[in-house]
Design goal:
By secondary structure, this protein is an alpha+beta fold. The protein has two domains: 110 residues, Zincin-like (2-Layer Sandwich), CATH 3.30.2010; 54 residues, no CATH class. The chain contains five helices and five strands. The strands form two sheets. Strands 1-3-2 form a three-stranded mixed sheet. The protein has a two-stranded antiparallel ribbon with strand order 4-5. A hairpin with a 2-residue loop joins strand 4 and strand 5.
Length: 188
């Protein structure tokens, strides 16, 4: 058996998450793993597989707070969170962590993880109800013609005709609907 195939057969564990994050980021790394474990238990019934949590000072794509990469057969699996040295912009928080965990959840279930997909909309509606006790509607993105122009809107609720969150709010959930889960790794 080659060294490469041996590495791929050993599962990544919670202990590995702690060791990796603690070595790289000290107490902040440990706290973020602890928060990931708490969110996994609370919001995903403990179903998410341990994944490396990468904290970085800069993001490779410029204006993202965080991203989830998931391709276990080639490039691996990570959740990357932006924690810049200058804390005035693009600072990931616990909302960013939960947002990326929704992507991870959908990837692991083999569902479409994009912000425009039905699984994403279903999950943010479920989680909003669980976190806040209130229901939101995140309708499918569609195009309509208005004043001779084609515009993109999100569909009304099919039964109640309730307005949907706009797509930008759906894509940037949970912060855009007023949920605040505290600073990255904190319990507040």
């Amino acid at each position: 058996m080659s060294a490469q195939s041996e590495c791929n057969t050993v599962p990544f564990t919670i202990e590995d998450m702690h060791r990796f994050a603690g070595e790289a980021w000290g107490q902040l790394g440990f706290n973020v793993v602890k928060k990931w474990c708490e969110f996994n238990a609370t919001y995903f019934n403990g179903t998410l597989h341990p994944v490396p949590l990468v904290l970085t000072h800069t993001q490779p794509f410029g204006n993202r707070l965080a991203f989830c990469s998931y391709n276990p057969n080639t490039s691996g699996r990570t959740i990357t969170l932006n924690v810049p040295k200058q804390y005035n912009c693009l600072l990931a928080d616990n909302c960013s962590l939960l947002h990326e965990m929704v992507h991870q959840f959908l990837f692991e279930r083999g569902e479409y993880p994009s912000h425009g997909g039905e699984p994403w909309r279903r999950e943010i509606m479920r989680l909003t109800k669980q976190i806040t006790g209130r229901e939101i509607w995140a309708g499918r993105s569609t195009t309509v013609r208005r004043d001779k122009r084609v515009v993109r809107i999100n569909a009304l609720h099919p039964e109640t005709k309730e307005l949907s969150l706009p797509q930008d709010a759906i894509a940037r959930w949970p912060r855009t609907i007023g949920i605040d889960l505290g600073h990255l790794g904190s319990n507040t």
